Every structure is written in C-alpha cells, then in structure tokens.
Amino acid sequence: MHNPLALIALIAYCLAALRILAYRRDGARHRQHVSWVAWLLLVVLGGSAIELAVHANTVGYFEAARAVLFAVFIFGSRGNVARLLRSA
After folding, report:
1. What angle do CA 15, 18, 22 make, to 5 degrees?
2. Cβ proximity of 82 and 26 under 8 Å
3. pLDDT, tens digit (0-9, with 9 covering 90-100), for 19-41
4. What InterPro entries does the record point to (predicted)?
5. Which residues of the chain register pLDDT less than 70?
C-alpha cells in the first residue's frame, strides 16, 4: 500500500469499527432497531476497510476525509450508535 491516503482511510475505518465493537451499554436500554443500525454500520465500515486493502489505488482526498469523519463521529459518541441517531 503506497498511497498514504489509503492508509489513513484504512486506519480510520478499522478504528471506528473497533470502537463500535468495544461499546459497553452500562445500564442503557437495548433497542432492537439501534442494534440493527449498529450492525449495518459495522458491516459497511468493515467492508470499506476490506475494499481499501484490496483496491488501495482508488482512494482520493474525499474518501480519506469521509473515513476520518466517520471515526471522529463514532469516537465522539463513544461508540454509542443511538447517540449518533438522536435528533438535536
């Protein structure tokens, strides 16, 4: 992998997926629809990381920025997908 943008995006996708996997409820209610959204988000992040590992030449600035923003949002909510879905 010689593209630094691809490496940045790959690390961001992997860290975001690991943060969702490491989420602890700590007394929060279990909501089925939020669990499904978290699972789908995890599948998309993992699939994007796998796709980057296979096709690293096609990464541009915007995809790397999108990956970093995903990671920032997920770490900002501490892996809580329900907090990401909550309306302001």
Report:
1. 135
2. no
3. 988 888 777 777 788 889 889 98
4. Phage_holin_3_7 (IPR008473)
5. 1, 87-88
Residue 13 CA: distances (Å) to CA of 24, 49, 74: 20, 6, 10
- Side chain identity at 87, as an amino acid letter? S
The C-alpha atoms of residue 15 and residue 68 are separated, in whole angstroms, by 10
**Distance, CA of 81 to CA of 75 (rounded, Å):** 10
CB-CB contact of 34 with 85 (8 Å) = yes
CA 24 – CA 79 distance, rounded (Å) = 8
Q: At a CB cut-off of 8 Å and minimum separation 6, what does 46 contact? A: 13, 17
* CA 55-48-31 angle, 5° bins: 170
